[in-house]
Amino acid sequence: MAEKIIDILKNTKKTLFSFELLPPLKGKSIECIYQTIDPLMEFNPLYVNVTYHQEEVVYKTRKDKLLEKTVVKKRPGTVAISAAIKYKYKVKVIPHIICGGFTREETEYALIDLNFLGIDNILVVRGDPAPEQKHFIPEPEGHSNALGLVKQIANLNRGKYLDEGNMTPTDFSMGVAGYPEKHPESPNSDSDYHFLKKKVEAGADFIVTQMFFDNKDFFEFEKQCRERGINVPIVPGIKPLGSKNHLTYLPKTFGIDLPETLVKEVLKCKTPEAVKQVGIEWAIEQSRELIKFGVPVVHYFTLGHAGGIKDVAKAVF
């Protein structure tokens, strides 16, 4: 049996490297994925995270002027991409399993496929609202939050499937998301920690955080987790800021703050290359401090681009 991510996280003597991969838009070939992965393989990633994106609803105007509802899948399937990466690069993959767009039955089918392919490490997240939704709306027979999804997967690990027959247990190791700056939809930090602990108690093995740009937020997050009895490994997630557009895009999209010092340095930049360099240098210092702190892994969000992450990894790994 292959060694689980959780076992490595618990026992590693040094900080390891990992990154998240965004599947390409529909119509692009798998070579787009390889172009992102290839430059990062020299740093021996512990795993590659593969995000999942639910289908989108688009309304098109018909000839009779009425609106026609169309469901559009803009990115290829995460299960297939995860299998391609696993067998091409011989690296561990951790696909996202999300609530949005899935019924419980569809979730089970996806998990059965992953189990068949030998992919037994997963990251369980609710997922973002679909672009046409102001708030997250689950499928009629789906999960409204990640806790329910964790419980379903824990049941599969006990051999309890939806049809209630006697089935072979799966052996998934589950990670869940953590939010050093609080989930944007959470009423307060206490609520965040309450439900995070519930997910761990239900079977989650480790935590991967949302991106942050101030390590003090992560250190406080880990401290609060430990004081509340959340004792699983915590993997910090960071991203090199890559453009001036990120000053507004990242806070709006991910519900995070950017440190005043970083923003001022970016605003001083006269060229896109200068902005990228500021982002790389900031991420290098973040990474070095996190490694000194003793985190098991530093996890990097690519958002489809590996360039800045390669520069960071070359400096610290």
Q: Enumerate the spans where pLDDT stays under 50 for 5 or more consecutive residues.
A: none
Q: Which fold name corresponds to the CATH topology?
A: TIM Barrel
**CATH level-two architecture:** Alpha-Beta Barrel
Total number of helical segments? 11
Structural class: alpha/beta
Largest sheet at a glance?
8 strands, parallel, barrel
Largest sheet, order of strands side by side?
1-2-5-6-7-8-9-10
Query: Per the principal axes of the C-alpha atoms, what is the gross shape?
Result: globular
The portion of residues forming beta strands comes to 15-25%
Helix content bin: 40-55%
Distance between the termini: 28 Å
How big is the Rg? Answer: 20 Å
**Tally of domains:** 1
- The residue-averaged pLDDT reads 89
Number of strands: 10
H-E order: HEHEEEHEHEHEHEHEHHHEH
CATH class call: Alpha Beta
Notes on the protein architecture:
By secondary structure, this protein is α/β, with parallel strands linked by helices. It has one domain (15-316): TIM Barrel. The protein is built from 11 helices and 10 strands. It has helices at residues 5-11, 31-37, 78-89, 104-116, 146-157, 189-202, 215-227, 246-254, 260-268, 272-293, 307-316; strands at residues 16-21, 47-50, 56-61, 67-72, 92-98, 121-125, 173-178, 204-211, 234-238, 297-301. The strands form 2 sheets. It has an 8-stranded parallel β-barrel with strand order 1-2-5-6-7-8-9-10, surrounded by 7 helices. A two-stranded antiparallel sheet has the order 3-4.
